[in-house]
Design a protein that fits this description.
This is Macrocin-O-methyltransferase TylF. InterPro entries: SAM-dependent_MTases_sf, TylF_MeTrfase. Keywords: Methyltransferase, Transferase. It comes from Jezberella montanilacus. This protein is an alpha/beta fold and 222 residues long. The chain has a single domain (31-219), classed as 3-Layer(aba) Sandwich (Rossmann fold), CATH 3.40.50.150. 41% of the residues lie in helices and 17% in strands. The longest helix has 18 residues, at 2-19. The N and C termini lie far apart (60 Å).
Length: 222
């Protein structure tokens, strides 16, 4: 029966692609290709080092799936805990209030990610048991509870959570490990990430490194 249905399926796909405008390739990620490449390159650089991978601000999990797929394909899942940390309820009120009251941002421009759901998110990763979702405010989470971190991806957009989280992540980062920060681009809706990143680099006497248009990078000296 499957062999009989295949010509029908192919005919339907042909109609959909040629005449209905369906099937056009799309780019499904909210971060740039060079950011995805940086995440892979940084992981490969420390893949043999003991430590976990931490992603903070996971949205619906596109980047999580991308990295988890790579880790699984490289047969490193058993030795690479992957922690996905998010409120799973959008930004906190305190962080939004700060953007509006202290940074002059428009609340309507900032609101987002309210669609997310902790239980649904976890179900989407049942085939990746090494990925553990943690429901928490990244600004108050105890990162020492995760053990050493060898790679972190910080994608929480706003000033306060990045200002508070970057130092805590850096303190648990292994020598040679790195933190990748999204939205490090000035004069944009989410330029709180840029401000917090630049302040962190100045405070720690670290030379800022921006890859592509908005990918901040911090590497701990080996």
């Amino acid at each position: 029966m499957p062999s009989l249905l295949k010509p029908v399926k192919e005919a339907l796909k042909s109609i959909a692609f040629k005449h209905l405008g369906l099937g056009a390739p799309v780019y499904p990620y909210c971060i740039e290709p060079i950011q995805l490449a940086t995440l892979i390159n940084e992981f490969e650089r420390v893949k043999d080092v003991e430590g976990c991978v931490v992603e903070i601000g996971v949205a619906r999990g596109m980047t999580s799936r991308f990295l988890a797929e790579h880790i699984k394909n490289q047969k490193l899942a058993d030795e690479t805990p992957y922690y996905a940390i998010d409120t799973f309820e959008s930004f906190t009120k305190a962080d939004l209030d700060y953007e509006v009251q202290s940074r002059g941002k428009n609340l309507l421009d900032l609101r987002g990610f309210e669609y997310n759901d902790f239980e649904v998110w976890k179900k989407h990763f049942v085939n990746f048991p090494f990925v553990r979702a943690i429901k928490s405010d990244c600004s108050t989470f105890d990162y020492t509870s995760l053990g050493p971190v060898k790679l972190a991806f910080l994608d929480v957009d706003l000033y306060l959570p990045i200002k508070k989280t970057l130092p805590m992540l850096y303190d648990v980062l292994v020598a040679g490990g790195s933190i990748v920060i999204d939205d490090v681009l000035n004069n944009t809706t989410y330029d709180g990430a840029y401000q917090a990143y630049m302040e962190f680099c100045e405070e720690r006497n670290i030379k800022p490194t921006v890859i592509g248009n908005r990918c901040g990078l911090v590497t701990k000296p080996a």
